[in-house]
Amino acid sequence: MEKLETRIRNHDREIEKMCNFHYQGFVDSITELLKVRGEAQKLKNQVTDTNRKLQHEGKELVIAMEELKQCRLQQRNISATVDKLMLCLPVLEMYSKLREQMKTKRHYPALKTLEHLEHTYLPQVSHYRFCKVMVDNIPKLREEIKDVSMSDLKDFLESIRKHSDKIGETAMKQAQQQRNLDNIILQQPRIGSKRKSKKEAYTIFDTEIESTSPKSEQDSGILDVEDEEDDEEGARETFENYYRKQRRKQARLVLQPPSNMHETLDGYRKYFNQIVGFFVVEDHILHTTQGLVNRAYIDELWEMALSKTIAALRTHSSYCSDPNLVLDLKNLIVLFADTLQVYGFPVNQLFDMLLEIRDQYSETLLKKWSGIFRNILDSDNYSPIPVTSEEMYKKVIGQFPFQDAELEKQPFPKKFPFSEFVPKVYNQIKEFIYACLKFSEDLHLSSTEVDDMIRKSTNLLLTRTLSNSLQNVIKRKNIGLTELVQIIINTTHLEKSCKYLEEFITNITNVLPETVHTTKLYGTTTFKDARHAAEEEIYTNLNQKIDQFLQLADYDWMTGDLGSKASDYLVDLIAFLRSTFAVFTHLPGKVAQTACMSACKHLATSLMQLLLEAEVRQLTLGALQQFNLDVRECEQFARSGPVPGFQEDTLQLAFIDLRQLLDLFIQWDWSTYLADYGQPTCKYLRVNPVTALTLLEKMKDTSRKNNMFAQFRKNERDKQKLIDTVAKQLRGLISSHHS
């Protein structure tokens, strides 16, 4: 404490010293301050005066500044209000747009607008009361859109059901126009033509549906929502399921053909129009909406439709018997397939089915041509075609490929060797080929396939249809020999024309006959078979005529008189044979010779049967003499050469059995016969002992009437003994021959 006190005293002394040192300065400062105070008072007065003047002068400025302050405040309020309105206006605009879209039934844009309103705009102004009202109203609006959309969807489904026919018809017309245009500019490259057709069809689709289902630029009139909330996803699923279910029902109705569809082409056309319209709509929906339909759904629907369509066409086309209707149906199916192919639907099965219908078409053609051939053959006069002028001659040549230098040199009038049915049949075969070619058009087949199809069908025409028609004519009961001869001549010329038919097919298909796997025409075989049948019929007909003459034979087997001339029936028969064989001059040589030989053999056989038949129990040598005259008449006919080409006595050999038998009995040369029997040089080599015995048995009780035995009338026993002896020897020959 003492130290502290000491230190305090020291500091006080220092302070006192310092104050004393600065006192004068302090006094001076006080003096200066007093002066300053006076000056300060003056300054204060000046400032007060200046302030008074300033206050007076700045009063208006203060008022103006106050007004400016209020304006700035209002400006800030207005700016804030504008900012808030800028947030609210889009909400109001979107809401107004939503109501307008709902009013005009543009449901898909309305739903998008509602989505943006709910998720983008309303959250920014959610604290306003009107926004809360909107938020509360959104579920109701969405439900309203859903209900109206479902109603419109139902209307749309009904509308496309009604308009499918028209849409399909328009699409197929456009496809037909496009095909016609393609044919015109076939050599010019085309790019995007099918797309154009598809776009045009969509335009037609929009036009047809517009009246019942309004749409925006992005909308087809059907609800389709993407990236929605769960409830919206469920609504979309409901719409999709409902749409697909209803469309499947409509598809089943469309694919059910009417029972009388096969009766007219319009029935098929309407059926196809409905199917095309249905799938044009589906394709349009696929490309203009998202999710309502997808490719898998359409592919499944098309696969089902394709199988049902093909089944219906198979069934109904099988009822069709008119080839023209089948051809028109084929063209309609091709147009149907081409139209749907434009929209990306696979149609290969349709073309495969057309190949089946092609076989049916061929059958209907064959039936039609069967009638044509029948009419031609029935109306033919079976006489060579007469021509009296060069014009007529060239007309026939133009219809049928025929060349004959000798006939060309002959003066008019002259005749072709064949009758009218040759050029007519030839031209009908060509018409049949044209008809086959028409069916092959637009089937996307190669030239080789077309050529093969035509040749196979033509072969059926020749080997089955024409062959049957010819056979029916040949087998007709009232057919005459003249007609048969003409048929043989006609078929000969038709056979020669087959090479021209080959050339004709080659020219229209551009496939050479030498090409590998090319089917050959069987026309040659057909006409040969017909000719052979006609030849056989000639032989049969001749034999029947001979039998008819032989039925007129009236022999008196018990006569004892010797005749001097041949029987009348045989003379008439020989005259008939001569006139008949005179007609055979135009036949091939072998045919005429065979016919003549066949007739002679049949005549000889029939005469032998007449002599040996059981009803003739007894006969006399006089009867044999008359029979011998008839046989000589036949031999004379054979020697006269009724048909050229026989060597010497070839034709007479037909009667050799009769000749040797009659000579044996008339000459009663039993010793020679029995002695030489079995030897190659035997005079009666052709006489069968059984035949000789049968005839001998018939003469047993009539030998007394035989002039040869007149000298033995007194010795009847010797005569009977001689016959018995010969008969016994003949029996011995027969038994030894059999053993």
Describe, in plain words, how this protein is organized in 3D.
About 5% of the residues have low confidence. It is rod-shaped, with a radius of gyration of 61 Å. The chain contains 23 helices and two strands. The longest helix has 102 residues. Helix content is 74%, strand content 1%. A two-stranded antiparallel ribbon has the order 1-2. With 739 residues, it is mainly α. Among the domains are: 139 residues, no CATH class; 174 residues, Exocyst complex subunit Sec15 C-terminal domain, N-terminal subdomain (Tetracycline Repressor, domain 2, Orthogonal Bundle), CATH 1.10.357; 96 residues, Dsl1p vesicle tethering complex, Tip20p subunit, domain D (Methane Monooxygenase Hydroxylase, Chain G, domain 1), CATH 1.20.58.670; 70 residues. Helix 2 crosses helix 3, helix 6 packs antiparallel against helix 7 and helix 18 runs antiparallel to helix 19.
Describe this structure in a few short sentences.
The protein has 739 residues and is mostly helical.
CATH top-level class of the domain at 362-535: Mainly Alpha
Taking the sheet with the most strands, its summary is: 2 strands, antiparallel
Q: What CATH architecture label of the domain at 362-535 applies?
A: Orthogonal Bundle
Number of strands: 2
Instruction: Please tell me how large the radius of gyration is.
Output: 61 Å
- Strand line-up of the largest beta sheet: 1-2
Distinct helical segment count = 23
Averaged pLDDT:
82
Low-confidence parts? 189-197, 208-229, 707-712
